[in-house]
Predict the structure.
Amino acid sequence: MSWGSIATWRMSYEGMVEAKKILSQGGNSGDAVEKLIKEVESYPYYKSVGFGGLPNENGVVQMDASFMDGNTLAQGAIAGIQDVKHAISVARSLSKRHYNSFLVGEGATQYAKLHGFETTNMLTDRAKKIWEKKKKQLQTKALNPYDGHDTVGAVCLDKCGSMAVGTSTSGLFMKKPGRVGDSPLSGSGFYVDSEIGGAAATGLGEDIMKGCLSYEIIRAMGNGKTPQEACDKAVYPFIKKLKQRYGKAGEFSLIAMNNKGEWGVATNVEFTFCVANEQDPQILIAYPGNEETTDIQPITKEWLDKYEKRIKKPID
Ligand code: GLY
C-alpha cells in the first residue's frame, strides 16, 4: 500500500519532509500529521500559525486547532487557546476523549497546562511590532483591520491505509477576542474518513463555514469523484452561490487526498501547497482556472526567493 501527504501553503514543506520520514518507514498517519504541523507551529516567521502568529485586536495570540482520526472518526479540537506551543498536540490529545473533546478559551488553556503541554509566550517581538504598526495605522486611516489567515492543514495516508487530518492557525490578524474560524470546526475546516479520504481548508473561516466545504469534498469523493473533481465540484459552484446570495466571497482554498494517495485542490486565490506520495515532497502553486477548474503549476525559484524575502522583511 502506498502512503501520501498533502498540506496547505509553502510553509508546510519542511514539515512534510519530516512527515515523509514517518510515512515512508511505515509510521502512522496521525503521527505524521502532528509532526508536520508542529514544524510549522515552531517557525517564528510564519505569522498565521503557532509561535510568531499575529495576535487579536488586544495583542493576544489566540489559536484554533483540530485533529481527526480517519479510522475511528475520533476528533479533538480547541479554539482560542493561549500560551501553548503546540495547539495541534492538544487537539490530538483531546481526540482520544469521548466527552469534552472540543475545548475553548480558558478551558482549553487550562487543559493544556494541566496535562503538561509546553507553554510559552506565543507573541514574538516581530509579531508585536506588526500589531503595534497596524494599531497606529488604524487610528489615522480607514483600513480593513482583518488580514492574514493562512491555516496549516494537512492530510496524511499511511501504508496501512489509515488516514488523519489536522489544522492549526492563529486565525485572522486583529480578530475580536474569542473569534473562532473554521479550522477547529468539523466538516468546515477539516474532515477525514479512511474509507474515502480527507480534506482541509485555509482562508476566511466565516465563509468556509457557510459551505461546510471539507465535508462536501469528502461526500463528493465518496460518490466516486477523484479528489480534483471533488474539490472543483465542492468549491467553485459554492463561490458562485455565495456571491449571488451573500453578495461576496472571501479568499479560501481547499486540499484533499483520497485513500489511494490521489490528491486535488481548489482555490479562488493564488495558493501554494505541498504534496508527496511515494516521492519527495514538492511545492506546487494553484490558481482558479477556466470553467470551475483549477490550474496547477510547479513553483518557481523566483517565487520562492521572493517569498523568503517577504516573510523575513524587517518591520519598520
Ligand atoms: N481559516 C482560518 C480562520 O479563518 O481562522
Notes: The first helix runs from residue 13 to 24.
